[in-house]
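pipeline/complex-builder :: batch 7 item 3
reading input block
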Amino acid sequence: MPVLSFVFIAVFLAANAFFAYRVSILLRLIKATHGPVWSGTRFDRIPERVLTVVMNVLGQRAVLKKRGAGIMHATIFWGFLIITLETMENFGYELHPGFTFEFIGPTLFSGLVALQDFFTLAVLCAVLYAFYRRLIVRPEGLGKSNDAIIILSLTGSLMISLFLMRAFHMVSQPNWYDNYQFFSSFLSRNLLEPMALSPEAAGNISSVFRWVHHFLVLGFLCYIPASKHLHVLTAGPNTFFRNLEPTKGMRKVNLEDETVTSFGMSKITDMSWKDTLDLFACTECGRCQDACPAHNTQKPLSPKAIIADLKDILYHNKTAILAGKSDEVGPVLGTKVTDDVIWACTSCRACEVACPVFIEQTDKIYEIRRNMVLMESRFPPELQTVFKNVENNFSPWAMSPDDRDKWATEPDDLQVKTMAALAASGEQVEYLFWVGCAGSFDDRNKKVSRALVSVLRKAGIKFAILGKEEKCTGDPVRRMGNEYLAQSLIQENVNKLNEYKVKKVVTACPHCFNAIKNEWKDFGGTFEVVHHTQLIGKLIKEGKLKPTKGTEQKITYHDSCYIGRWNQEYEAPRAILDSLPMAKVQEMEKNSANGMCCGAGGGRMWMEETIGTRVNIKRTEQALATNASTIAANCPFCMTMLTDGIKSKDMAEKVKVVDIAELIDQATI
Amino acid sequence: MATALIYAEYKDGKIKKITHELIAEAARSGCEPVAFLAGAGVEALAKDLGAMGAKRVILVQGDALKFYSNEAYGKAFVEAVKSVNPAIILMGASAQGKDLAPRVAATLGIGLASDCTKVKIEGDKLKCTRPIYAGKALADVEFAGSGPQFATVRPNALSVGALQEDASAAVTNQPLDASALKSVVKDVVRGATAKLDVTEANIVVSGGRAMKNSENFALLEALSAVLPNSAVGASRAAVDAGYRPHSYQVGQTGKVVSPTLYIACGISGAIQHLAGMRTSKVIVAINKDPEAPIFQLADYGIVGDLFEVVPLLTEEFKKVLGEH
């Protein structure tokens, strides 16, 4: 074997050893984070997991949701797969000159080299486009990244070295498949042949570029683990271990466990292994940040930044973590992750839906809130009132539980039956109508509750309410971090529903809906719960509700986060609006999965919003841009936020915010 | 005859009404009211306490007591309790009482019925009534075991007796060992605002988004100026619109107020606002929209433009209050 082969083997092994060492540190960090994983085990349903990897990693489906950047990325990714075969061939060549994959047969081999040559050019174009995006277009979400410039330069150089290697090789030693490498042979014929190099000189130059390519590849390998390009290793596993369910609730904390000394995330090691993998998988593409309502209204929160900051915190504490000195690991809060960052989140989940590698940003934010509230009693002062109200009155507002059923009796008595009365008489109903605090106490939303009663009666649905026995579902306080209070509410409610043997629940509040559907099951409450738009949609389909009365109106529909992104219901409310006679529906620019939050989720309904523009104003402006006269809502919080937005824009005379139940009530006899 | 030791509170050289209430209640029940008075240069107030019905006054004076401090006042009061050995201790559930009572009770190892709305003394037994569950229920509380029975009572809960200007109390001077104190309050700096905080006002005049701009709040200021012990508040919408600073905000995320009279001007009555003022004794609402939810809660509603109604109200109040 020639000397150069030994040199190659030494360099190759050294680079791989260094790479393995760096990766082993990352694996040890993943192992050292010991918190519980949100939403279930991640080792079940293997066929589905393999399928999602095939679709989203090999197929690039999630990446391609964004067109320009998606096509660029897919080109580089697929090119990388194909060209790696050539790289392997080149490595083999160092050990055994003349080594090729030609043994696969001339047809396949000519196809392969043609594809490799094509992708070399395609990747080079994609890299140029990426440079254009980063340096000229400069989208806000991408931010400045020297890391990205280094990686793009490396990738571009890899392609150029390949072209030169091939082209010079063609001059020195023509092969039967040269013409299949269209662009390389074009270079060779038109640029190199006129130079009239000796075959020997051309061969040597080709070898130089082959070595340049080797060094670039191995250098890349060493560089990857410390860069954002780490995602080439982690995006695959992170996709495999993703949350397969489109819906999720908040993780139940075991408050009975007496060995637990701290709740929530106070240190970076309180994260789960999956959270750490999330941090490693982030490519800093900025799609989450572009979608974040907090970021887009100048709040200090950016989902991209919080992932990057948590990763920084992890690396900063690396020595202590790896030495097992948990006492020396610093707190997460008070770094770049501040109170204002953590409390700005509206839990709209736009970040998670936008993420091409399935990072779950909200889990981390809400684990930090839990720690702040449960362990440090550290939260915005206005939340104290909410906690007190929920403790005393079972509602976030200071309203007496005794008045909870007044919406049904004032101004006139609708004669809505309660579960207690039915239990006494032995009568059966199909649905429990879960009214929720807003529908019970807020004057505007009381009208929605009354409209829904009217609609259900028109369709002949038998239902009852809990009346004074209903309590807050725990949604707001749980998202404010008060897990203890939330659990006591959930348990009391679940026990009550089980006592009445409730099977089906209908509610007009997406927050109640999500809590009952996705969170109560951890407390022994399994109910079939539908949102009122789903039930109304079904009743229209079955012909039990016939919207016949119509007034000419232009409607725009605002997706609530908890019916939309959290529970993937985009169609039912739209189908209802389409069924309204004489109504024209005009979508907002941001709609469905890309819809923007009203600003009230995650407990923000009860917090002051003093930084930046108000989220509800921004969303209202988007709604007003459609020139619609009616904004259709499906959530009491959205109703309040958008109504306030309309008022502050002085448009209350011209534009109304109306719940879908009210629209259907008006349209039916 | 049971002895009742009453903690005397004063402000700006005047004994507070709550202290008078407590002395009067003790005297009415046949107890011997003994007042505890601490401060610097406050001996003149001992005479006032006598006029209110105190038979004896324990007077503690010193530079360390010039301003109220939990530690110094607590130490002096505990010593007074030990020397007087009363059957009953009463204190106002004021800011000072709320601060001091738990410390005293804990130091003495005795029970405390805090924030009572009613106290009854039968013989040497103290029976208290205190609200629980945010006022949803009232609990009757009695004391078990021996030792002084200690209660703090909400201001305005009891009636005062007539002053007897010729009555006087025997003053006992109690020394204070200031050297053992770990902290001394040197000065108290008042906040810049001279205006009454909305939570302290007896009457609150609030404006909503319908005020249109911050200058128009002058209308409400004018009305407030006529009404004694009143302050101006604002709804969240008005604060968000920048008409008023956040410290004026009444509502769930602002200040929670419970005045005798609440005048809501151009406030529709969103739940967030109602949560902050619904316990007001009398609510007057002025709004153009007869459908506004605030009218559901209001005792008196005026459907009309606040820019016409408020100046009229101001004029009328001027006349009526001027006659008295």
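note: The mean pLDDT of chain B is 91.
queue -> next item
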